[in-house]
Amino acid sequence: xxPWLLLLLPLHVLASKGHLKGVSPELAARxxxxxxxxxxxxxxxxxxKSIDWTAVNDDYCDCPDGSDEPGxxxxxxxxxxxxxxxxxxxxxxxxxxxxxLCEPECCDGSDEAPGVCPNVCKEVGEAYRERVKxxxxxxxxxxxxxxxxxxxxxxxxxxLEDEIAQTEQExxxxxxxxxxxxxxxxxxxxxxxxxxxxxxxxxxxxxLMTHVTALKSLQREHxxxxxxxxxxxxxxxxxxxxxxxxxxxxxxxxxxxxWEQLAGLPHINDVGKDGENENEEELGSDDxxxxxxxxxxxxxxxxxxxxxxxxxxxxxxxxxxxxxxHDKHVGAPASPTSILFNLSAYLPDALIPQYEAIxxxxxxxxxxxxxxxxxSDRAADTSKQQKALNDAEHSLRxxxxxxxxxxxxxxxxxxxxxxxxxxEWKKLHGTCIDKEVGDYIYEVCLFDEARQKPVKGGSTFSLxxxxxxxxxxxxxxxxxxxxxxxxxxxxxxxxxxxxxxxTLDMSCGLENAVLSVGEPxxxxxxFKVTSPALCLPLNVSGVKREEL
Length: 548
Ligand code: MAN
Known about the structure:
Elements: H1 25-28, E1 34-36, E2 39-43, E3 50-52, E4 79-82, E5 90-93, H2 121-200, H3 203-242, H4 250-263, H5 280-297, H6 304-315, H7 319-330, H8 336-343, H9 352-368, H10 375-413, E6 432-437, E7 440-445, E8 449-454, E9 461-469, E10 485-489, E11 501-508, E12 513-521, E13 524-531
Parallel strand pairs: 11-13
Antiparallel strand pairs: 1-2, 2-3, 4-5, 6-7, 7-8, 8-9, 9-10, 10-11, 12-13
Helix pairs in contact: 2-10, 3-4
Bound molecules: alpha-D-mannopyranose.
Signal peptide: 1-15
InterPro entries: Gtb1-like, Man6P_isomerase_rcpt-bd_dom_sf, MRH_dom, PRKCSH, PRKCSH_N
Coiled coil: 150-184
């Protein structure tokens, strides 16, 4: 039985004296003795034992379930019922009966001997009723605001459904466009490739390729010669510095003199003699200057340095790109349009106007068929078409993303784990509320992120992103308790501590507001928040008027 209904029961049933003391209204009917002749007996509530009726509430525990002592503290684990006339009856553990302390749950003082605790049920009851009235008023007004949130969710449903349908259509159109452009790019590319092959057959290009091959072969030979020359030079250097002049071997002396002359070196016997020669490098460099001068004589010829360092670059030229470039400079030869334009040079003046009219029509048809373009134009077309294809693919991806986002939002709209079964929280997604406390402004953007901003400037700390509603064990998903908390997790890491996190303790209020902020543990923050989304209509749950 609901405790409020107790107020409707006749007072004699609720007698707080004798056998029925401490018995709750629900059990009153079971505290009736059984007559056997002149004797009265009573059965323990668990049916385990029959005792004398006078043993009920005699301050001695007889029944194993403690049911024989509802009005005393004799049995452990039994309950005592305070009638609390003028307020609401309530149960307390029997162990707290007669302990000399006035239990707040027993405003009538019935848990203690008469005169120990005053009966304050009138005042307590009145204050309680005032409180309930104020809460009712708040819920009534708050629930009106809440209903606008519910209506918003309904509109959102329609908007998202429309968006999904529209993006679906857009996707179909964009997919067709992408397919068309891809086909165009492929066709233009294959046309370009065929035309390029044709260009490659030109004598100029073929000759260029032969030159490239010859140059590569010469480069290879040149490198081999350089290596051989270096090896020979080393042998002769060793001979020059290591031979014994005392042997008077003319063949060796001749070879040394010859090498010294060729390499521009002083005779080995003179090296180190005062004033004769400054040093070998100087002599050598004089010689190089002469060589350079000689080379400079033939204008445009490459120096040894250029041959060594620039030949590779030259041979790595993109000759196909050059071929396409070439067309731009000399004009694409023999394309259908160029033939038509050049023909006018050979016609008599009188025929030119007629010829030009026909020519323009033919060109238009050729262009429509994609035949009236040169290689370089085709290359430009390909890259233009490729760009159009890339753009179309990008737009398609964006539209698909738009559709996915809308579908995700629609799925969340009436999901209890997100915006509630009626979608009442959707309106508040991204609503930011804050409170200045101490050196910081604490802000939470609902379903998004909580932050801590220093009032006097400095960097803002993220206190975490929305993680879930109250998913503590035993809390039913979608119940009022579930929506009484929100968790924000994985914020900025605390120095030597955890990542910052926030728990919102939420209750019904006319405004979306942060009432207070605390940091009960280092970097774990608790915000007290109100929101009309939590103001359930009066007929949904909570205290009903008739129970007062
Ligand atoms: C900052 C703020 C505080 C926090 C400390 C931890 O000062 O985020 O709230 O307690 O860092 O070092």
